[in-house]
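Figure-free illustration: sequence to structure, shown twice.
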Amino acid sequence: MHVVSRFVPVVVLAVLLIGIPAANADSEWQTVTAPTTPILYSVFMVSSTEGWAVGDGGIILHYSGGSWSPYTSPTTNRLSSVFMVSSSEGWAVGFDLTIIHYTGGVWSLSVHDTIWSFYGVHMLSSTEGWAVGAPGIAYHYTGGSWVSVGTAPFGLTCSSVFMVSANDGWIVGQDGTILHYDGTSWSTYATIPPGDMLRSVHMVSATEGWAIGDNGMIVHYSAPTWSAVTSPTTEDLNSLFMVSSSEGWAVGLNGVILHYSGGSWSLYTSSPTTDNLYSVYMLSLTDGWAGGGRWGDPDRGSIFQYSERQTQRTPSNPYHYVGGEVFSANKLAVLSPYLALLSVIAVAAVVVKRRKT
């Protein structure tokens, strides 16, 4: 027993000094190979293993089996927004008042015109939803069909819609305008100076939400007031997703990515791209997707994933950071200070005992 007790501190100390490589879960935004050149404007994930993305030229991509692949589209019009009700049903909207419906494994054309455009869609269920666009238009899906409903002054671009419930919804758009739905009609709720275009809204609850837009505009809703907050960028922001009241992401032009944590927004300093980002969708704190691209000859579509990766911690790299995000510590990292203290005490005890003998 005395022999074992003498070797314990030696073994512990050796482990700490040598530094057994330990798996460490980091999360970062990474480029994923996109099987398309058209720019992507919207991404929606049904789960960690299935999702959809839409964009220019009516392009539709399906994520399944760990990769993205083109899916048959019923339109060549730009698709601006996609929303899945479930893995077997969803909707996408776009230019020329295009609305397409996914059911039975097929996307089919539901509504089409040649004048105006849709920019956002949000479904509450398979029987209830809204689509918004320009100029000042909104369509309500109810009773199995899409019905045009007046929302705002003619000419006002409505960029994004988020429904908290069938009787509570928000639209953001041109001139910093924010509209509210009370279950009966849409009305102007606030206008945020200096009047920049607001491009995305995401509600955390009926009493809290966020909106983002041009020139880095960020607006926070704490019932009953919408107010601008400090932004770490002046780039135009296009899409927003809140994982919770304390965690969220926003993306914009030239590869800008913002992270909300600890009560403030900060610039994600290791963006993997300078492409314009138009959509972000988070499945959890450590799993999400973004889509975008860059105009050129030809255009370039791009997809990015935020996910954990396994890294090795060694004595020369004890604290590994990725993209400014703090690693998620494993058990060894957490216990190291205590093990070190234990080894010091044990060694001291052995020394004292030897001096006594």
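We now fold a second protein in the same way, so the two outputs can be compared directly.
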Amino acid sequence: MTILFRGRFEDGNLNEFSPITSPPLLTGTVTVTPNAAYEGTYGARCQVPAGSTTAIQTASVARTFSPTLKKVYAQCKIRILNAPTLASRVSIITTRGGNDAWNNGLASIDYGSGALRWHLLKGTYNYADPALYPINLNQWYTVELMVDETGGGLALWVDEVQVLTLPDLSPGANMDCIRFGPNFSNMAIPVTLDIDDCIISDQYIGLISPPVQYVLTIQASVGGTTNPVAGSYLYDPESLVSIAAIPNTGYHFIEWLVDGVNWGSSNPFYLSMNSNHIVQAIFAPVMNHTVTFQSIPIAVQAIIAGEAVSSGGSIQVEDGSVIMISVPEKVIT
């Protein structure tokens, strides 16, 4: 079993997917928003406006994989915000076969017999009894679709329960793409679906735990900033994170505190993410001291910390500085 792809929208955009929003007649929208998250920070919201009852409208995301496969398993989290009330079909997961032919295998919802019902399709129709497997609005479901073009047929699971199976009446097609989100027909009202945590595999895998990520919180005391800037960030386990302390004018960097413990003053600082951490950059005002130079009995000029200072003159140096003082050779001899 190989997981071919897992997209969770946690980068805050659709870079992991190819959006499909072409009509024929209407254009929907797919946006990544924190209002559509099943877990983590972001999910995708798919919206299509009301319009023609004869056109097919699409607002979904797709992932193409190579090489083509004879067996495809797809899983996603889905929340239906508003649903069809006509005799229409709204797809949730769709596989694509050769010649750009969609509906090679399709898991969807359908309004029929006076209620919403789960629907499986390839060459024929197959519906789940809405009394046994109801569909509620604003509720998250885990939907799984298995399409086996070697003769194994199709299967649909909802929340780990197999609700539908269908023999493949025309096996043999190659599959090269999965689409998540609505692609529907006969729609006269708008439809909105939220999707998250989309998985594609070459075999059935069932539910798997979400990938663990750790939170890094970066803070800076008065007198400086950090790079990355102060805030909270998610990282995969064992990620090596570089953090730099940047003192403001008149301040200098003192130390790092990791979860309240002194971790030295290396700058930049590297931290391996094996748990949640709070990192604080500590700064302090620069303390200056006065160095006065006096030469006796001859008034000469000295070089102190790179500056020329005459007898009786002085310079300011920072606290903790190591300075070099040099005088003309004739004075020493």
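Summary for the second example: Helices lie at 329-332.
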